[in-house]
Amino acid sequence: MRIALFITCFNDTLFPRTGQAVVRLLERLGHEVVFPLEQTCCGQMHFNSGYHDEALPLVRRFARVFRDEPLIVSPSGSCVAMVRDHYPHVAKESGDPELIEAVRTLGERTFELSELLIDVLGLGDVGAYYPHRVTYHPSCHALRMLHIGDKPLQLLRAVRGIDLVELPAAEQCCGFGGTFAIKNADTSIAMLDDKLTNVQETGAEVCTAADNSCLMHIGGGLSRQRAGVSAVHLAEILASTEAEPFGVPAVGSGDAITVVRA
Amino acid sequence: MTTSASWPDVPAFPLAAKSALADAQMRRNIGMATSTIREKRTGVVEEMPDWEQLREAGRALKERTLRHLDEHLLTLEESVTRAGGVVHWARDGDEANAIVTRIAKSKGVSEVVKVKSMATVEIELNEALEAAGITALETDLAELIVQLGRDRPSHILVPAIHRNRAEIRDIFRRTIGPETLTDEPAELAEAARRFLRERFLRARVGVSGANFAVAETGAIAVLESEGNGRMCTTLPETLITVCGIEKLVPAWQDLEVFLQLLPRSSTAERMNPYTTLWSGARDDDGPREFHLVLLDNGRTDSLADELARQTLACIRCSACLNVCPVYERTGGHAYGSVYPGPIGAILTPQLAGMRAAGSLPFASSLCGACYEVCPVKIDIPTVLVHLRDRSNKERAAASLKGRLDPERLALKAVAKGFATRGRYERLQKLGRLGQWPLARKGKIERLPGELGGWTKARDLMPIPDQTFREWWVEREASR
Ligand code: SF4
Predict the structure, then answer these.
(1) CB-facing half-sphere around the CA of B58: CA atoms within 13 A
(2) Is B391 in contact with A50 (Cβ distance < 8 A)?
(3) Which of A13, A51, A186 has the CB atom closest to B411's CB atom?
(4) Domain that holds residue A84
(5) Most buried by CB count within 10 Å: which residue of A8, A247, B40, B288?
(6) Which of A84, A99, A120 is the last residue of a domain?
(7) What is the pLDDT of residue A246?
(8) What are the CA-CA distances from residue B56 to residues A157, A192, B63, B257, B258 (Å)?
């Protein structure tokens, strides 16, 4: 199947590993991945920060770039939620009937990775191998806007070699919230502290999620505390096999940013 | 002075939250209380097979009512008048306070008893009465604790949620006695009961709020747990009810939906112990005189905003506070208003204006837990980002400082940069080059200026040597 990758500006720039993992995973499963190079950003950052006029051109751009793609996947729950839940609202406010129509079908064609694997491709087991102790943090937008439920956990449970441990108070927000983490840093950090305590209680080596934004936050806190726990995107775990491990980036070392060259 | 829903002496949310976060005792008190009620609520909601339909019914009813509120209000006025009540219209808090004060004065009283009511705290009625030489006595136990402690409410349902038993005992010992009081709940309740009972019997004027006002029949509904509200609304000769115009429901039958939604969401009870309903006044039962003060105080402005209008559907259950990770940590006072938590973050800026409360829409991580539990399905996260947009625009329009706000300039520049592929890719390269003074040993531990908020407790991984798209292009070329 032809699948267009919407990498998101955030992953493109800061977490290229995750994009590479999605490509490796989907190609291993026999699909053709295309990457429209004209894509930039879905506008979520501007929309959520309260700059709606600035978000609108980015929404238009996204709708144009992905207009003819039948199936779009993104390794970010919150960007998919932006497309599915907020695009109709932005389009409505613009009063442009063409945009309203364009974003309607867009929401139906755009999927978060675990949704694509389970709902569209009908896969519970992607044949991954990942011999590490892992705990899963359900990111808020994937959980409460996309309602992906335990789809990532279903996929993780099928991974061979994994030691999956439950995260206490998993559904509590990690405190990221985009500019909230900076504008309301003290409150955000108080929320993060509880999340980090819970992550460490599990004894996991790896904390995973369907969103790198939460993982940047949790990972940033773990790194500061020298906790010895890595934050790794779900796609990277699912991309890993016995023959071709994707590896855990070492915490706080330059490894975390080494790009895997396929 | 025009009273508004925001306390002028409380600083913007980030600053107020910072000092609240330092109060470990308060954080423990609130954390304990909210987690208990949260679990109970989940229990009584899960046993309802039609909960989602009920929520949808509540939402739809409110939406329809708000769309034709002007007509319904006239119907309500007619019904109340027909039932022997007097209806007053108040544009703002000052007008409402003046009306209540005038009525109380005309009865020659120096004391009124009050049912717990958000609207009267919003307009600072007690303070206005005080200025006219009339003492307003709160009769809800938690509200009484706040009043006796010369404190402010920090929760919609449990205004003294930030206090624990030992603190309450100390307040009572200081004020209503006896000196030998212990912190046993039964003893504390008994002390309050003895103090209040006497006041109920001598009170000649009662003041209440309203949970619902039925346009069709003119009935006012007050829901409560203690029975003190019923005393206030039945014993005095004169009853004055201050009611926000959005509390209206068109028909008697509509109560069926809300009387199911409210107690389960609020106190996590299947049914609240006391529901008092009355229409107008009569000679042989209850108050001889009934006054209904219909309060606007910013509500029609909110009605004019098509998206934010849903805020007025709120039935003040407080479920959104109890699940909010921000509220749980900062408590209610940081919101600088009688309406704290997620509902406060969207309601206060609309009632008090962005100038007074413009930081509140940003006091959320947008986790969405509030929307999930709201019994009338107010999409709080969407209203929050909508109000953020309004707040940013109003700030920019108001001053040069607002226009030159660093975040605004940065996000505008980024939006421009993301408008074409060429510029976007140049920005990526620029970011990678520009970060070299910050990165040490593969991480960034300190950022300058506002961004330093991030690195207070969190490292940042630098931008890697190759973007995803560079990798992709390279890979395509080598295939
Ligand atoms: S916004 Fe919804 S959940 Fe919050 S107090 Fe109002 S009705 Fe309850």
Answers:
(1) 28
(2) yes
(3) A51
(4) 2-120
(5) A8
(6) A120
(7) 87
(8) 35, 34, 10, 10, 11
> How far is Cα B7 from Cα B342, in angstroms, rounded to an integer?
17
Of B301, B323, B347, which residue constitutes the final position of a domain? B301
* Residue listed under structure tokens 């029609």: B300
Note whether residue A235 is domain-resident: yes
Domain that holds residue B415: 406-477
Kindly tell me the burial class for residue B305, based on how many C-beta atoms sit within 10 Å of its own C-beta (0-12, 13-18, 19 or more).
Answer: middle
Can you give the length of chain B in residues? 479
Which run of H or of E encompasses B477? helix B468-477
**Tens of pLDDT, residues B138-194:** 999 999 999 999 999 999 998 999 999 999 999 999 999 888 999 999 999 999 999
Distance of CA B295 to the CA centre of its chain: 17
Q: Which of residues 412-471 of B touch A (CB under 8 A)?
A: 412, 414-415, 418-421, 424, 428, 431, 441-443, 445, 450-451, 453-454, 456-469, 471
Q: Please check whether residue B358 is in contact with residue B61, taking contact to mean a CB–CB distance below 8 angstroms.
A: no
Q: A181 with A208, same domain?
A: yes
Report whether B311 contacts B320 (CB < 8 A): no
Quick count: other Cβ atoms within 10 Å of Cβ A122? 7
A260 is a domain residue:
no
- Residues of chain B numbered 18-57 and touching chain A (CB < 8 Å): 18, 21
B125 CB contacts (<8 Å, ≥6 apart)? B93, B96, B97, B100, B136, B207, B242
Residue B317 pLDDT exceeds 50: yes
pTM of the predicted model as reported, rounded to 2 decimal places: 0.95
The per-residue pLDDT for A254 is 38
Q: Using CA atoms, how far apart are residues A143 and A174, in angstroms rounded to an integer?
A: 13
Question: Do B457 and A221 make contact, defined as CB atoms within 8 angstroms?
Answer: yes
Residue with tokens 């997620």: B342
User: How far from the centroid of its chain's Cα atoms is residue B34's Cα?
Assistant: 15
For A157, the token pair is 């449970």
Does ligand 1 lie within 6 Å of residue B287's CB atom? no
CB contact at 8 A, B191 and B172: yes
Residue where one domain finishes, among candidates B260, B282, B301: B301
Identity at B452, one-letter amino acid code: G
**Are B200 and B69 within one domain?**
yes
Q: What is the interface pTM, i.e. ipTM, of the complex?
A: 0.94
Q: Which helix (H) or strand (E) holds B110?
A: none
Does B171 lie in the same domain as B52? Answer: yes
Residues in B touching A253 (Cβ below 8 Å)? 441-442
Domain count, chain B: 2
pLDDT at A199: 97
Instruction: Give which of B391, B459, B465, B466 to mutate to test A binding, by max A Cβ within 10 Å.
Output: B459
pLDDT tens-digit map of A177-224: 999 999 999 999 999 999 999 999 999 999 999 999 999 999 999 999
Residue A205: CB atoms within 10 Å: 16
Q: Are residues A36 and A107 in the same domain?
A: yes
User: Is there a domain that residue B219 lies in?
Assistant: yes
**Neighbour tally for B426: CB within 10 Å:** 12
